[in-house]
Amino acid sequence: MSQPILHDYYRSSAAYRVRIALNLKGVDYESRRVNLAAGEQKGGEYRALNPQGLVPMLEIDGLKLTQSLAIIVYLAERFPNPPLLPPNSADGAHVRAMAMAIACDIHPLNNLRVLKYLEGPLGVDKDARDTWYRHWVSEGFAALEAMAAKRAGEFLFGETPTIADVCLVPQMYNARRFDVPLDAFPTLVRADANASRIEAFAAAHPDRQEAPQ
Prior knowledge:
With 213 residues, the protein is an alpha+beta fold. Helices cover 51% and strands 8% of the residues. It has two domains: 76 residues, Glutaredoxin; 112 residues, Up-down Bundle (Glutathione S-transferase Yfyf (Class Pi), Chain A, domain 2). Strands 2-1-3-4 form a four-stranded mixed β-sheet, with helices on one face. Helix 1 packs parallel to helix 3, helix 4 packs antiparallel against helix 6 and helix 7 packs across helix 8.
């Protein structure tokens, strides 16, 4: 297998998830930076690779994979160990639901292009934008806390990290950046802390990536 290429941005939650999954699977990859802040994702060269103009995109096995959860599921199937989903189908559905609560419900309302649209065409000031961010993250975290609490262990589900934790850690990073109060979410805080002590998670942290100049 030739070395996979991850089209990446250091603060992208979705790209952060894929970096974690690649690290957990022990897959060595080349990172190619796409500067979202500078709008490089909108350029013709990148859109020729990924018509959505989003990151991440993973080139692997002759494929160009997009959408972080689709990429992570591909990696989970392509490299079975360590597993990112429990073997029981009911437990797997529970873990997928938590991952999707983050990736499909919380994150899309607060990603960079949404925040830029609020500030730009809609003329929302920074304080109002940040209030928007904190509201939707807090609402989503309240639901996720309730989903996770009864079946959590060291992580969101049980004693080993799953795809749900892969999605949680980047969202917690962003929540702290925007000063979202986290005291009401002890299960999420515990799972995030335990996952962040694992080198595969720690190595994917934005502070350990090359930031655009």
